[in-house]
Amino acid sequence: MSGLFYTFNIFKSGMGAQQTAINVTAHNISNADTEGYSRQRATMVTSRPIGMTSLNSTAGPGMIGTGVKVDEVSRARDIFLDVQLRNEFATYGNYAAREEFLSNIEVMAMEPSFKEGPGISVLMGRMWDSWQELSNNPESPNTKTGVVETTKTLTDSMNHIYNQLEGLKEHSNILMEGKVTDLNNKVTQVIDLNRQIAGIIGVGQQPNDLLDTQDLLIDQIAEMVNIDVSRDALGQATIKIKNSDVVIVGKDRKILSFDNTDASLHWTDLKGTKTDANLENGSIAGYMSVHSEIIKYEDQLNALAKAVAYSINTVHNGGILPGDPSYVPILVANGVGAEGTLDNENAINAGNITVKSSLQKDSSAIKAGKTGKPGEEGDGSRALAIAQLRDVKFNIEQFRGETPKGRADNDFIYDEGNMRIESNDDGITLDGYYRNYIIEMGSSSRQAKGMVEAQNDLIQQLDIRKESASGVNRDEETASLIQHYHSFNAAAKGIAVIDDMLDTVINKLIR
To answer: Where residue 113 falls among pLDDT bands split at 50, 70, 90?
Structure first.
């Protein structure tokens, strides 16, 4: 039966509910700038009324309300937006990782590329020009020295770019290893939060802040690997690698590992069994693709270096093979066995190519004429033949790979009578090969940069939508705070009225 104390309890429930709502609003305002925070709302419902009819009671005036209560404190979250953002995070992470390195490679290989001077294309042209000048002045020691200097400058530039590529490759490995460690640390945190979340939901409460923290971690994981996320009835997250059966959070989970010896990624299950990790998206996949791309660029630069060395050495020696006592190579592999041997020449790559050490000290052994013998260099025909190599088309691709083919395997067809290497109609000039090399680098870099910009714009748009759904608007929260304050104040005044009424009943009417 209703009475003053009954009414008192109704106002009391109002004060309690509004106090909870004020606390929630204050929490929102305080965390307006907290990364990953989702706006919370206190959902109020009427408490169970009295006056329910039954077989043993008359209907009376109907059900009488008993006040209000906070049913739950929920967070504003759009799950569909979460899925969209995480997919875009993975794509952004992939191309951001690629752009980070490819832009450096492009700048490194484009003109100028070596000590603020000309790039390889210009240096190669200067080298051919120096041979052309030697053909016009075949007996000039200064002109021969000029050939050595321009050729050495070219090889130094190749060495420099190769070493930079090696440095970038090692740096990509370091970053990839760090990303894998970061991923595993975040996965461990998500697993720990799963236990806390399940425990709180299990007793009927809502762990909003813990869910926000976990969702932020999941967003960061999504930037590293492409994932699918689901939650069970207790709020525990299960994370799988998209388009695979690999679970990284949940039952039968696997751990990602990086092997620096061969720059490979593996999934390891809890029994220790390893399988190759073929990641499709995310920053880790981006670093992995960059590593492979750097190896490809090194192979191409090695192929160019070897083609330059083989072609010049072949014409300079008139078809005489390495190992012959009369063989005088212009270009050799620095620090690999004895210069002038087949093993040394087969080992030439962009990282070790250089001018024969004895020629750097004394260039007189350079053969400018047909015979190359002292006093018979007046025609300069051999130097001219070397200069004309700039227009010869080669199958340069034959020298690509981890183990580039040696001299015995190349398809150069040399005619000593005309001192020329037969041009391959299906091939490409040495300078053209390098230009294609630069174009390919630039294209990859521009693609990555364009994708990063596009993804960044898309993520910003999705973030705006997410902020609208989940973010804290200080003006709205302030208005809400004032609303709850007035409701709290009205309930408090109601209690004051009931207090006066009780005082009248107790102190006046009863007496």
So the answer is: very low
Question: So what's the pLDDT on residue 105?
Answer: 80
- Give one word for 328, left, alpha or beta, with left for phi > 0 and alpha for psi -120 to 50: beta
In this structure, are residues 44 and 73 in contact, taking their beta carbons and an 8 Å threshold? no
Task: Please give the Cα distance from 332 to 345 (Å, whole number).
Answer: 6
DSSP-assigned letter for residue 326: T
Rounded-to-integer distance, Cα 93 and Cα 104, Å:
17
Q: How far apart are CA 459 and CA 88, in angstroms?
A: 7
- The pTM for the full model equals 0.83
- Residue 379 pLDDT greater than 90, yes or no: no
| φ and ψ at residue 364, rounded to 5 degrees | -65, -20
For residue 27, what are its two tokens?
């929490």
Q: What percent of the chain has pLDDT over 70?
A: 91
What is d(CA 355, CA 149) in angstroms, rounded to the nearest whole number? 9
Per-chain mean pLDDT for the chain? 88
Average pLDDT over residues 175-181: 93
Kindly report, residue by residue over 146-171, the tens digit of the pLDDT: 999 999 999 999 999 999 999 999 99
In this structure, the strands spanning 227-231 and 237-241 are antiparallel
110, two tokens: 């484009």
Show contacts of 334-337: CB within 8 Å, 24+ apart: none
Which tokens hold the place of 102?
A: 């490819």
pLDDT at 246 over 50: yes
> How far apart, in whole angstroms, are the C-alpha atoms of residue 340 and residue 347?
11
Q: What is the pLDDT of residue 1?
A: 46
Here the tokens at position 384 are 């001219």
For residues 163 and 473, the answer to whether their CB atoms sit within 8 Å is no
- Exposed, middle or buried by CB within 10 Å (0-12, 13-18, 19+), for 110? middle
3-state helix, strand, coil in the chain (%, to 5): 60, 10, 30
- Amino acid letter, 87: N
The residue that leads in pLDDT, 25 or 442, is 25
Total residue count of the chain as it appears in this document: 511
CB contact at 8 A, 351 and 361: no
Contacts of 200 (CB under 8 A, 6+ apart): 206, 207, 210
229-237 LR contacts (CB < 8 Å, sep 24+)? 229/82, 229/83, 229/86, 233/201, 234/197, 234/198, 234/201, 234/202, 235/194, 235/197, 235/198, 235/201, 235/207, 235/211, 236/194, 236/197, 236/198, 237/190, 237/194
Amino acid sitting at position 92: Y
